[in-house]
Amino acid sequence: MTHGSSRRRAPRRTRTAITVAAAGALAAAAALAFSPTAQAADTLGGAAAQSGRYFGAAVAPHLGEADYESTLNREFSSVVAENAMKWDATEPSPNQFSFSGGDELVAYAKEHGKSVRGHTLVWHAQQPGWVQGLTGDALRQAMRNHITKVAGHYTGQIDSWDVVNEAFEWDGSRRQSNLQKQLGDGWIEDAFRTAKAADPKAKLCYNDYGTDGINAKSDAIYRMVKDFRARGVPIDCVGFQSHLASNSDLGTYRQNLQRFADLGVHVQITELDVGGSGTAQANVYRQVTQACVAVARCNGITVWGVTDKYSWRAQETPLLFNDSYQKKEAYGAVLAALNSAAS
Ligand code: XIL
């Protein structure tokens, strides 16, 4: 008998003794385990997983901060780079790629068993200066090359990519970005086809804000997605950023998610944050979570940061953990809504 296996025997004896002594208590616990209360998970990621969903957070470079990292590790099952995978970060000069920030996040996710959303391949904002100056076919080639190289670099490692971000105006017209003006209406489908070739397995999403109900903007996006599905343009998901306030009207929020889901795409809440505090804020978080779990194809929620301290809307304290990483009322509301979907 090796030293190793004799060492393994000792804990087994210990466990047996504990099990015998605690048999009565265990029987009581077993009965409780079948009640919904006892099943409730005590982390966001764990609670979401009970109904097959992820619960994610946008991550900025604060992983060296102990409370930041432990909160992220414990609560979230998915991550997205708040900035590190955007065009200005990944291709600062033409065809010169810099993947360090994104690579770190993907390595972190792999090590901790979390899935990754990719954000974002093509957007009018946070473009490097050299892209802003391009016209016509040069811009088209730059866009295709960017998508091919970035989605190609991460191929097989991204659950869902925001291929195109924020291409519509409030009135449902196309945003008059450089992409729209230089390339015309076809640039969005061009981007999706290029992404499909570079990473055939990732879910490919269109992502936008102000789509928190049935309105002119979400109507226009709905028509585009319907058309893409009818013509076989590869689109798999629609992201609803959901940058909200305590008084946001969510009267048609669930219905809006459902009509997109009925087109056969997944829907995801991609950048949730709610300005405000206390019960009013918690109620908005609850409504959004309940809407997602009521829609079978709503497969995940991401909040746009871990702590109020580092939020892009820090003054509005819009997240689930306060500056000292304490759980806010909104946290309890989200956790309960996720758990009730599972019971
Ligand atoms: C924001 C980041 O949170 C900030 O750090 C950055 O300065 C600007 O961009 N919609 C999006 C996100 O799709 O990429 C934006 O993120 C917030 C709005």
TrEMBL record:
Gene3D superfamilies associated with the record: Glycosidases
Active site per the UniProt annotation: 271
InterPro entries named among the record's database cross-references: GH, GH10, GH10_AS, GH10_dom, TAT_signal
Catalysed reactions listed for this entry: Endohydrolysis of (1->4)-beta-D-xylosidic linkages in xylans
Entry EC no(s): 3.2.1.8
Keywords of this entry: Carbohydrate metabolism, Glycosidase, Hydrolase, Polysaccharide degradation, Signal, Xylan degradation
The organism's place on the tree of life at top rank: Bacteria
Ranges of residues in domain GH10: 57-337
Segment forming the signal sequence: 1-40
A family per Pfam: Glyco_hydro_10
Class in the EC hierarchy, top level: hydrolase
PANTHER family on file: BETA-XYLANASE, GLYCOSYL HYDROLASE
Family label: Belongs to the glycosyl hydrolase 10 (cellulase F) family.
Name recorded for this polypeptide: Beta-xylanase
